[in-house]
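Protocol step 4 of 6.
Sequence for Phosphoserine aminotransferase (Shewanella violacea) entered exactly as in the expression construct, tag removed. Do not edit the line below.
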Amino acid sequence: MSVTYNFCAGPAMLPQAVMQKAQSELLDWNGLGTSVMEISHRSKEFIALTEQAEIDLRELMSIPANYHVLFMHGGGRGQFSAVVNNFLGKQGKALYLVSGSWSQSAVEEAKKLTCDAQIDSINIAENTNGINQIVLPDLAKIDQDYRYLHYCPNETVDGIEIFDELDSPWPIIADMSSNIMSREIDVSKYAVIYAGAQKNIGPSGLSIVIVRDDMLELPSLPQSSIMDYGLGVKHGSMYNTPPTFAWYLAAEVFAWLKDSGGVVAMAKRNLKKAALLYDFIDSSDFYTSKVCQSNRSVMNVTFYLANEELNASFLKGATDANLVALKGHRSVGGMRASIYNAMPIEGVEALVEFMQDFAGKNQA
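Step 5 output, structure tokens:
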């Protein structure tokens, strides 16, 4: 069986070693004679799994003791509303930085949920001569009393990443769905970090929320109990039945990350993968990037063919070469190679080789 490299933005490829382990344990997990999907989430065996998963995640991200870790339903979009309902309260105000499609979606969701609260937003993405970049505002000059500032450090659709730490006078909430554990961050700089699992953690349907304890004291809005962070903390992420198989796979991914050298080692590999692909794009007049170098996403490499009439042919050829899911998001077109933690360097090498060959055969 030939190797297929899956460049899907999400749900994304999982580490091969994790998938093989899950396959071997599918019908008999932990010697119980049943699948992990079939046992009680309150059994001592599953509780042990969840406790180890949290220990591993805390170690991987160096999460301080005054932060709670929640394993929740809803994915990233579910947290768009949960953030508002948990922290904004009546007559609260929040500031959203808009850098692309997902941060804009967070704004739109927040505005739907607020009646007497105030949602302000600042567009920080600029396009100059066809090149996209991030221009951060001087937040210290904004004379407002916001409950929190929300932003998305990595935009999967646009291939834009913010590497600078924000200097914010208000608590920072970050949607790290697409770059969590791809590089080191200082968790203490954030009040809340949340992430849909389906890119660097596990399958879709699970989300991780890392919340500083003082944030749980903010006034909240009426909301569903399963998205209440306070209830989640009180009940150990088990107010209702959690997505157990997704939690199991996340635990296996955390273990794989630790065995692979942790976030520090993964960051080096990710930079190497991204540099290989971006360097080739920059060296070619057949392909182009529309993101300035200082804001190019390490996880989601967007690029365009000089002759876009060849897009369909490129995608077919790539699929024939076992390089799948390279079509760019429908809102921006072009191509997108998502190279999350699970993508090996061999996958990027194979993609560059195909791109070089395709350009040679189709150069005008």
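Step 6, annotate. The chain has two domains: 17-259, 261-362.
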